[in-house]
Specification:
The chain is of the alpha/beta class. The chain is built from 16 helices and 10 strands. Bound molecules: guanosine-5'-triphosphate and magnesium ion (MG).
Length: 393
């Protein structure tokens, strides 16, 4: 049985394989399966196909790349999540799909995402959850089948503000449906200000527990940490700054994934950092920029790993990916300074990998991004340890 290389890209469109004998594999959909299974299916075929060939030719490889391109989806849930995704969309993020999900038709209409989904039409009639996470979760359950069909990317980034009804109640169910499709789920969520009251904080904790169950990595950003950095700012300004932090974090990881394979970092490296291994999902991200004098490089490298918004316990880092971006003049000695400074801030046996990315838009500015595995946010730890199955009320 031989397989014709040229038909791979056709297959992604036709969603079926053609063999030279004319036989077909029915219901075989390459574009709707996770990357590992796509690769396995292709390599099985290749084994058949290459029984007469030793080398793989470029036509075959180029077609293969199209099939294996990593699919990412950024999903904003509820008002705060929709704001973050709208901002990402406005910044013109390329190479990813965006999806906003809400129970509130008004918020959803005025948001900006490539795709939108109004959940819980029976539960909420498009008027929101009324601050009730139980309604938010029922709304998502009502549309679980639709969610499952849509959430078919290799990596799903979820973002929401915890403490309200929709984000808190629906995000865990959205994460669950993505996990059913074997997606890697990376959640970014804000924890409400203390001043928003205990009830909101308790709701956020329950939501975080449920979200943690279905997330590979989770990056909770406590709004109060922001308040410590800009204490005099009005709450609305704080929300705007928080939106910007979330947007920048998601944008950098998506860009890193799109650039995978260029210089030293590939998807397998990113996956090792983001995929879950223990009882608690961990997560660390830090992004800083420097103009490149030695003192500032050291300061900004430390700031990236000790991100003051997350306050991670860097002693818990067991794996770390450092991505350095600048224009083509980026020097190896500057990259080395950044990598060695960050290495000194984490345990000696932590596995560290770095990569460089040429971005002419940065000019001589150097952008440092650190992605870490290991540090578990105290919020996540305490939420996961909270009594089991406390229902939303
Ligand atoms: N970053 C950011 N956070 C926000 C914003 N608005 C609210 N929040 C935070 O997110 C939490 C949830 O608020 P929303 O996202 O508006 O709530 P929701 O998920 O839409 O839930 P309901 O409207 O109650 O159905 C709040 O308690 C705030 O802490 C915003 O514009 N940006
Ligand atoms: Mg809302």
């Amino acid at each position: 049985m031989y397989y014709d290389y040229k038909t791979i890209s056709e297959m992604t469109n036709l969603k079926e394989f053609r063999f030279n004998e004319g036989s077909q594999l029915p219901n075989f959909s390459l574009s709707e399966t996770a990357i590992t299974s796509r690769f396995k299916q292709l390599s099985n075929l290749q084994r058949n196909a290459t029984s007469n060939h030793i080398y793989d030719n470029d036509d075959y490889l180029s077609d293969l790349l199209k099939v294996l391109k990593i699919k990412t989806l950024v999903v904003g849930v509820g008002g705060a999540g929709n704001n973050t995704v709208s901002r990402l969309q406005e910044m013109g993020l390329v190479g990813t799909e965006t999806l906003n999900i809400n129970t509130d038709a008004h918020d959803l209409y005025y948001s900006n995402a490539k795709k939108k989904l109004l959940i819980g039409k029976d539960q909420c009639n498009g008027t929101g959850s009324g601050n009730n996470p139980l309604i938010g979760s029922k709304a998502a359950e009502e549309d679980a089948d639709r969610l499952n069909k849509i959430l078919n990317a290799d990596v799903v980034f979820l973002t929401c503000g915890l403490g309200g009804g929709t984000g808190t109640g629906a995000a865990p169910i959205i994460a669950r449906e993505a996990k059913k499709n074997n997606s890697l789920v990376v959640s970014f969520c804000s924890i409400p200000f203390r001043s928003e009251g205990n009830q909101r904080r308790l709701r956020a904790k329950l939501g975080l527990k449920k979200l943690a169950k279905y997330s590979d990595s989770i990056i909770p950003i406590p709004n109060d940490n922001l308040l410590q950095l800009i204490p005099k700012a009005p709450i609305l300004t704080c929300f705007k700054v928080m939106d910007e932090v979330l947007v920048r974090s998601i944008r950098e990881i998506v860009t890193l994934m799109n650039n995978c394979g260029l210089i030293n970092i590939d998807f397998a490296d990113v996956k090792k950092i983001l995929e879950r291994t223990g009882n608690y999902p961990s997560g660390l991200i830090g992004i800083t920029e420097t103009l490149g004098n030695e003192h500032d490089i050291i300061h900004k490298s430390k700031l990236a790993i000790h991100n003051p918004l997350l306050k991670p316990n860097t002693n818990e880092v067991d794996r770390c990916l450092i991505s350095v971006s600048s224009n083509h003049k980026l020097s190896l000695s500057n990259v080395d300074k950044i990598v060695s400074t960050i290495s000194n801030e984490v345990p000696q046996n932590a596995k560290i990998k770095f990569g460089a990315n040429m971005d002419p838009n940065l000019d001589t500015k150097i952008r440092i991004m650190v992605l870490g595995k290991g540090p578990i946010s105290p919020y996540v730890r305490s939420a996961v340890n909270a009594a089991d199955d406390i229902p939303f009320q």
